[in-house]
Amino acid sequence: MEPQTFFRLIFLIVTAGFIISFTSTNFPYAPSSTTGLLDCTDSSSSPLCASRNFLFNKQKPQFSKQDPKPKPKNHDHLSDTLNHPLDPLTVMEFNKVRSLLSSDALFSSGAPHAFHSIVLEEPEKNLVRAWEKGNPLPPRKATVIARVGPDTHVLTVDLSSGRVDIVDSPVPVSGYPMMTLEEMNEVTFAPFSSADVNRTIVSRGVNLTDVYCFPLSSGWYGRKEENKRVIKSQCYSSQGTANFYMRPIEGLTILIDLDTKQVIEIVDTGPNIPIPGSANTEYRFKNLGTTDKTRGLNPISIEQPRGPSFVIEDNHLVKWANWEFHLKPDPRAGVVLSQVRVHDPDTQETREVMYQGFVSELFVPYMDPSDAWYFKTYMDAGEYGFGLQAMPLVPLNDCPRNAAYMDGVFTTADGTPFVRENMICIFERYAGDIGWRHSESPISGLPIKEVRPKVTLVVRMAASVGNYDYIIDYEFQTDGLIKAKVGLSGILMVKGTSYQNKNQVNKDKEGNEEELHGTLLAENIIGVIHDHYVTFYLDLDVDGPDNSFLKVNLKRQMTEPGESPRKSYMKAVKNIVKTEKDAQIKLSLYDPSEFHVVNSAKTTRVGNPTGYKIVPRATAASLLDHDDPPQKRAAFTNNQIWVTPYNKTEKWAAGLFTYQSHGDDTLAVWSDRDRDIENTDIVVWYTLGFHHVPCQEDFPIMPTVSSSFDLKPANFFERNPILRAAPNFEHDLPVCEVKYVSA
Question: For 223-243, what is each residue's pLDDT tens digit?
Fold first, then answer.
């Protein structure tokens, strides 16, 4: 080794060691000023103002003179007050929990410990439903998931009495809690503490100062993952690009002890695979050339001269048109909707639709069985924390001008609270869509032209889980429909290859190409085939908690001879599903059904039970073998729809402890108990799926692809609930000056 390279290597090792030491001794503790902790206007002011990607920032961000000044904070979270039983824990409550735990015997013994989750322990559902504004709040409690030494513990902290109760200690099921931000931070630096890792990277012709290493959850395969928390790390070169994801050091996989941060094993199966080049990987606007002659778009902005039509009361209660619901951020689920109610224009009642809804889990398996890829089967909520990875939304681009924003308040591993600013946005959308219309044919002689515009309310969150970006929308329509939409964007996880063109790919004697497990996107870059599954928890309470699941099978019915000129027609066969196993639904175009949640105790004027139906849109089903280890852990994706009786402890489809779990505490396990689900409090689980075979248009950054499903009223109202909606009139709309530009 050249002397210059040797000294540079020594310098980097020492520096990395210092960073790890500094992080482990300083990062978990509160800064000297709580104000500094909460100030996320400048991302450099607090290490917790961004996702785990902040770990890779080597320079402070530079702002051009044209950049607008940061907006003032929404409000001072130190003065947050409690107004609803489901309001998230406040900064003051987090600090009290931290203080109470610090004096508890479990944590005061000096044993190493970390708090992986501190969230509100929600009151019993019947208490929340019975509560009315102005009444005293139910007792406030916090649920704490902590690790002390090798053991995981679940505790409850009563914020009124100060009592700390151990609920489960140590936890007997397989799996570990989701990682803390600090752990993700430290794992990014851990590989550089190994001289063998550094030598391997240098031997691949990469400068260590250009290397970023990523924490990748290991899954569970029963070998190296047994009886020890481990994580894998793979590295990338950033030389010549900010898009380092496109420059993998292919085949290099580092196994790390997640507790000690020590390197356990190094595997390098790709020493002969070149590092892809940086050409054409740039995606930042300021760095892109302007040679494209595509006709540009003029800016579009929706103006509301009278202001928005929605209000946010008491920080978390959203009211808009005929809807009201409680909204809060969550470190695991991201966004939680609670007590969703809709106003009935005929009865003038505000009626229950859904007690709670959120993303329960995400499953992202990659379809490459090789040593460097087989383990990439991520659970983004239970392993990384979907809410922890939420990004501050970018005004005018993530959300329009008329948006309001909501912050998330979460905690570090030592219980110190921090703020994720602008985590959620709420805005009204009008895209020129039509709510309803009818124009009468000239044949009738009636001059009728009735049209109503469709304006909706959107609740949005965006999470950047490493390379991938997820956009979650909940869109409310005035006709009673709720649309849940998932958008996928960001950057592909790619594989390095020696191939630069398809004509180089090896073929066998029959002319079959070598299996690449993906698509050649650019020189030396393969986009690996993968899936995305997003499972939603939907505790529907249609006019109250006691509901049933109604399956409406659409069947071909043949006519009797001589009955009709028609030979066949379609009929609807309705059956109330009695138990859980019969509500395990695999969608099929050739066995179509509708899926309703009904309240048989409340009927319409003409006798139909009130209900809502789940309306699937484009989706995908897992093709993995049910005995494949990742599919065992993700057995909740074996069906697209499940229905279970309400159980406060059954919220996370992959189990409460997902990291390295064995699949012994999943939605599939609960559902196989085959409990009664008729005329009781039930929960519907819906999985939205995507198969992704990458294509060149996904390089170097992906255009957003989306899918959705609807919760649609089905005999819930007596008639069209937006019958009386007003049309637009010219005098109601602002007139803006238009400057025409000649072509």
Answer: 777 789 999 999 999 999 999
